Every structure is written in structure tokens, then in C-alpha cells.
Amino acid sequence: MIPATIEELGEALDNQAYYAADDLKVAIHLSLQLGRPLFLEGEAGVGKTEVAKALAAITGNQLIRLQCYEGLDVGHALYEWDYAMQMMEIRLLEARGEAERATARNIMSRDFLIARPLLQSIEAARDGQRPVLLIDELDRADEEFEAFLLELLSDFQVTIPEIGTVTAEQPPIVVLTSNRTREIHDALKRRCIYHWIDYPTPDLEATIVRRKVEGIDDEVADSLASAMERLRQIDLFKPPGVAETLDWAESLKLLGAGGLTPQGLEQTIGVVLKYKDDIDKVQELGAEAILS
Amino acid sequence: MNRGPALDLATFSQALRQRGLSVTPDQVADMGRAFRLIDPASRDQVRDALRSLSISDPAQRVPFEEEFYRFFEHLYPADGDPNQPSRLAHMSAVKPVVEQVDPGLADGVTRSQTGASTLETLQTRDFADLDADQAAEAKRIVMAMSWQPSDFRTRRWVTDSRGPSPDLRKTIQRTVRPDGDLIPIVRQSRRLRQRPLVMIADISGSMEKYADMFLVFAHTAQRRLDHVEAFTFSTELSRITDDLKRRDIQSALAGVNKTVHDWSGGTKIGEALAEWNRQWSRRLARGGPIAMILSDGWDTGDDGLLRTEMARLSRSVHRVLWLNPLAARSDFRPATRGMQAVLPHVDELLPAASVRDLRGVVRLLDELNRSSHRG
């Protein structure tokens, strides 16, 4: 079921342990109600992908994920013929002496087609189902793929020359994410509800830690959240995301540390910062600057 | 308010468009529908809803919110752009040049009224020593230069009869045609794409004469190559790529003049590169770009920072070319602290003080291309 109001949506997200800021809830709500794709941008680790997972769980629909990469083409995104099976079918027809009567139709039927995520989502969007299609890290794909996607997202319809046209009965719920390693074309973004996910406020981040990391002390959660806020204010090459906060909390729990101490910070800094320059900078500033 | 919501939104989106947001009619229609989906009494919900339907870049959040509060709460009076005096006014002497040049003319000069001997000296004379007429002529020559795009292999395949690997999809498709048993194997190869070029120009006081010419050079590069990004800095980094995309050199330079606010300031190369590394390297470093930095290396910033950021830059790009106008002088030694800091991370240090120097830069790019891909 798709939540009817923003309040219901907020509750449903909470139940999935996804704690969204108010402006993100509005964007998700509009996307669901207007039937437009949701385009999420933000630094790595702020929970863009998690939105799609939570939506699939809330609406009780299947999550179909397309991970983008450079060179991603129609064969891997939409559909591909199963060449090995087609070859085998030809040989079998020959062996049975049926090759005479066989036509190209035999091996160019749906049975020999491998549906990739985009076709899967179109085929699954029927009988009242609205699958959640997650197109992850679109910035990794190249411009050619973007142009193709623009067309697909406008009518959710695919024409396979050998078979015919497949149309989605209702548009799937589409979530696109980008880490902004390059600009996505404006035309694509304008088809979507656009939202930039910021780092959470310390309060929200502490809530996330408390709810996601079992058995964590409330005080530890608060101190982690405020340490994170300070880390993000330092001029780092790669500021840590929420994913790092959660890893950090888990690490401290594993080490049996009662709280966030200068020693604990030193032991676990590699969980939070992944660039040597950033680690050097924090060590130079000293633990007190982060923990106070 | 006695105007209906539709009228309000039309006026509002008009205001957004004037702030540079391109709001489509579809989006305006969605805004109208959005009002029924949210609580219209909640200012924050209205703001968030309209924002998610009108921006497409985090940088647009500020102008959006300014317009929003101005429009719906009448809190802020309209503030116009501070009127910058046109520092590039003297560039208006440059006239647009005919795009295609006669290949027979070695120097790529079209209808030059200048005599041959003057032309010869123009080729080698330092930009700083040119008078206004000569500078205009030199710019004309720079604009007419031809560039050799530099290619690299992408991960995408294209059909190529001499390609290294078979394309199974196409091969099978052809096999099922009823024209015989022979299976013609369709081959494919990686598609070639132009290597991006990132140009970063020092526009501090000491570089004034050269920076003008470099902007013309960058504009020409933009017109000749597929992927050119351009930046300027003296005390802050400004991206001028979009300004240079305008075809006409005069309006391009007028755009640059509006974007850049730190002409002839001090030189903080380290800070500028740090800003580039943080804001742009991950967005622009795909496809292994060539970075071209124009600066005399007279740095007033921290040279430890310069060293670190230069090292980082050199790791994220394919090649670093450093253009230094002083390098043209016979007594040049890269002895300034700034140059000492950057040299270990520079692949090529090149002079850039005359037309001939710039031509050498273009030629070097071509050579880089050949050595890295045709072997």
C-alpha cells in the first residue's frame, strides 16, 4: 500500500528504520503520488539507496536494482537474447529432423529472452503491482545510457522487434541515485522529483544510530553524532557519511569501548576516514577537537 | 491573497526562471497538483514540495529559497546583481573570426591586413609587449588555430569489421536470416572518445596580459574539442565553462566577466587547487583528462598546501601541463617557491607568452595523444 499522507509515509519509513528529514518525506510523497521518478543526489553514505529498499518494504513490492557502470548497454540494462540456449535449440531441432519446419520464431520467442532489470520492472508492473526500480549511481553510466533512460522513463514501454511492444500497466516506482561524480543531464532530472539529501542533523543521526545499532548506549550515540558533525565541519577531502557513523558505532561496540575516547578514536579512525590526508589532518588537530 | 494558485505559480516560476532555474511547464503543472498532496498551510511543506519540483542542482537551493521567501512572505526586497564594471571592455576590439581556415595558410590567418614581417614578429613577441592592435591580431590568430582532439578508449562497444572481439548479439541475429549456413561473425571494438581537457588559469595581477589571451585560447579549445572545462583563480576558484560555451567571443568574455570576481587579486594557487580537488575532481576526472594550468607560480599562499594539492591533482588526471609565460625567457629558472613546490608533479612545463608558444601547446597535446594510443 502506498501511504496516503505525509504523516503516514513518515510512520511507515520509521517502521522500516529509515529516519528521513521532513523535506525528504515531502519529496518521496510527491514522487509516489504524482507517479514521477525520484532523483536523489547527495554525498556517498547519506542513505540514497536505502530509500528504495524502504519503499519496496513499505509498499510490499519487489525491489529491482540496476547498478550503473561505464559502458552499461541495452543488453545488460534491458534485455538480452540467450545465445547459448538459442544455439542449443537449433542443434536440437536439427537432431530431431525438425529444422525444416522450424522458423525463426521458434528461437526468437520470449523463452529465449533474458529480462534485465528495466524489462523486469516493466513486466512486473501489472496486476496492481508497482515494483520499485532502483537505478543506482547513474553518474557512473555514460551519456548514451542516460539518453536511452530518458526515453524509457517517459512511457515505460519497450519494443522488442522480434516479439512486440511490452508496456507497463502502471509506472513502476522509480528511484534514481547519483553521487554526483558528474552532472546528469538536466532533461532527465526535470522528469523527476529532485532531492538533495543532506547530512542528517546530530539529533536525527543519534536517533539513526540508536535504532540501527542494537544495544548501543544513548550517550554513546549522542557523542558519535556530535563527533560526526565536527568531523564534517573540518575541511576534509571526503567527509564521512551516515554509513560510516553506523560502522563506527558497530566497531566501538565490538571493541567493548564504553564511550568515545581519544584512544577509541585512534583505534577506529580508519572506519570513518578513508584518505590518509584526512586522517593526518584529524590527528594533527588532536582527539580533543573532535570529542570535546 | 486574491489571486488563484495557478496564477501565483506561474508568476513564481517566472521569477525562478529569472534566477536561472529552468522550470518547465510540466513542472509548473505538477506544482499545482502538489498543493493538493501536502498541507498548504505548512510553509515548510510547500517550500520543500516546490523546491523538489523546480531545482535540479544543490547550488540552486539558495536562489530558490530566496525567491520562495520573497514571493510567499514578502520578507526580502529584490536584490539586483551588483553591477560589475566591465574589466574586459577592451576585449571588444576583437571581432569574430571566420571559423574555417584555408589549410594552405600555414599560420591559419585568414584575411590579415597586417604585413608579413609584422606577422612574423607577432608570432614570437611576448603578449605583454603587444599594443592594442597587435593584441587584437594575436587573438585573431589564436582563435583560428586548429586543435587535434586526443582520443582514448571507452568501455562501450561499437561494430567494427576489424575489431578484436566478436559481437554475439549481432552475429546470432544475422545467423537466423534464411540465407545459408555460414555464420558471418560480426566484430566489435571499444569506441573512442575525446580525452577531456581541464584548463585552469591564474588571473592574478602579475598574469593580467597573459590571462586575457589564455581565455581566448580556452574559448577556441572549447569550440574545437568535445569536452573542455575551464576555471580561473586568483584568490578564489571560478568555473567559466558555461560562459565560454557561447559561440561569440565577446559575449563569452562578457559572461566570464560576470562570473569571475577576483580579477588581478593575489595568488593563492594552493587554495584554488584544493577547491578544485574537492569540488570538481571527482566530477570531472572521468575519462582521464589532461589538466592545463596557466600560472607564473608567484604564489602568496602556503606552499605546503600547494605541494599536497598539486600531488592530489596529478593523481586524478592523465597528464599535468603547466604553462608559465616566464618560461619563454632565456634566463628562466623555475626557482620561485611556488614553482619548486609544483614541479615534481608536472609532466610538462611549457612557455606560454606568444602565439608560437600556444601553437606549441596545441602540438604537444597532439603528440601526447599519439604516444599514448597509437603504439
Class of secondary structure makeup of chain B? alpha/beta
The largest sheet of chain A, given as strand count, sense and whether it forms a barrel, is:
5 strands, parallel
Q: For this entry, what is the oligomeric state of its chains?
A: heterodimer
Distance between the termini of chain B: 72 Å
CATH level-3 fold name of the largest domain in chain B: Rossmann fold
How would you portray this structure in words?
The complex is a heterodimer of chains A (292) and B (375). Chain A is α/β, with parallel strands linked by helices. Chain A has 15 helices and nine strands. Chain A has helices at residues 6-15, 22-34, 48-59, 74-77, 83-95, 104-107, 117-124, 143-155, 186-190, 202-212, 218-233, 242-254, 262-272, 276-285, 287-291, and strands spanning 38-41, 63-67, 79-81, 113-115, 132-136, 157-160, 164-167, 173-178, 193-196. In chain A, α10 crosses α11, α10 crosses α12 (242-254) and α12 (242-254) crosses α13 (262-272). Chain B is α/β, with parallel strands linked by helices and 375 residues long. Helix content of chain B is 45%, strand content 13%. In chain B, α13 (303-316) links the parallel β7 and β8. The model of chain B is unreliable at 75-114 (pLDDT under 50). The A-B interface holds A 6, 22-23, 26-27, 29-30, 33-34, 36, 39, 41, 69-71, 73, 75, 80-81, 83, 86-87, 104, 107-108, 142, 144, 180-183, 186, 189-190, 193-196, 235, 237, 277 and B 22, 24, 26-27, 30, 33-34, 37-39, 44-45, 48-49, 51-53, 55-58, 61, 154-157, 168-169, 172, 176, 178, 277-278, 282-284, 286, 308, 312.
